Amino acid sequence: ELTTVRVQDPRVQNEGSWNSYVDYKIFLHTNSKAFTAKTSCVRRRYREFVWLRRQLQKNAGLVPVPELPGKSTFFVGSMDEFIEKRRQGLQQFLEKVVQNVVLLSDSRLHLFLQSQLSVPEIEACVQGQGSQTVTGAILHYAMSNCGWVQEEETRP
């Protein structure tokens, strides 16, 4: 089984305002039976990664959860360098997470990687309070996924 996860295309949102942030495209391609959709493409920001890591830690017991890159607001170098370094750290984090069988069993991880649900919506879904099941939410997103749309447009 092979799972490729890429953190790409960092974008500054609300640039120039006090509430600007960077989000990243997470592209997943797999043939693993653990995943509902075989390809997915979502955008997530750093604080969502922080939430995910906290949830994985809570549910993983004694299994160590990989570290995230630091949240330093003071850095040496340019903003572009900082964003690129963080992107690399987020990719390494996800690469380690998807290789860990215990962490892979967490449905929050699957919703994080394969749906565009917000953190509160992921929580509601996992607790059975959402309008969809975990699998339903992932399949619903897969049908409207950016990766699928691009494939459709490039066919002759």
Notes on the structure:
- By secondary structure, the protein is of the alpha+beta class.
- The two termini are 31 Å apart.
- It has one domain: Phox-like domain (PX Domain, 2-Layer Sandwich), CATH 3.30.1520.10.
- Residues 147-156 have low confidence and may be disordered.
- The chain is globular.
- It is 47% helix and 18% strand.
- It has helices at 46-59, 79-98, 101-104, 107-114, 119-126, 134-143, 146-154, and strands at residues 3-13, 21-30, 39-45.
- Strands 1-2-3 form a three-stranded antiparallel sheet.
- The relative contact order is 0.16.
- Keywords: Cytoplasm, Endosome, Lipid-binding, Membrane, Protein transport, Transport.
Lay out the secondary structure.
Elements (H helix, E strand, L loop, with lengths): L2 E11 L7 E10 L8 E7 H14 L19 H20 L2 H4 L2 H8 L4 H8 L7 H10 L2 H9 L2
Helix pairs in contact: 4-5, 4-6
Give the tags.
PX Domain, three-stranded antiparallel beta sheet, 7 helices, 18% strand, globular, disordered C terminus
A few lines on this structure:
By secondary structure, this protein is an alpha+beta fold. The chain has helices at 46-59, 79-98, 101-104, 107-114, 119-126, 134-143, 146-154; strands at residues 3-13, 21-30, 39-45.
Mean pLDDT: 85
The major beta sheet can be summarized as: 3 strands, antiparallel
The helix-and-strand class reads alpha+beta
The CATH topology annotation reads as PX Domain
Total strands: the figure is 3
User: What is the first-to-last residue Cα distance?
Assistant: 31 Å
Per CATH, the class reads Alpha Beta
**Number of domain units:** 1
The percent range for helix content is 40-55%
Global shape: globular
Order of helices and strands: EEEHHHHHHH
Low-confidence runs: 147-156
Radius of gyration: 16 Å
CATH-defined superfamily: Phox-like domain
Strand arrangement within the widest β-sheet reads: 1-2-3
Strand content: 15-25%
Label the CATH architecture: 2-Layer Sandwich
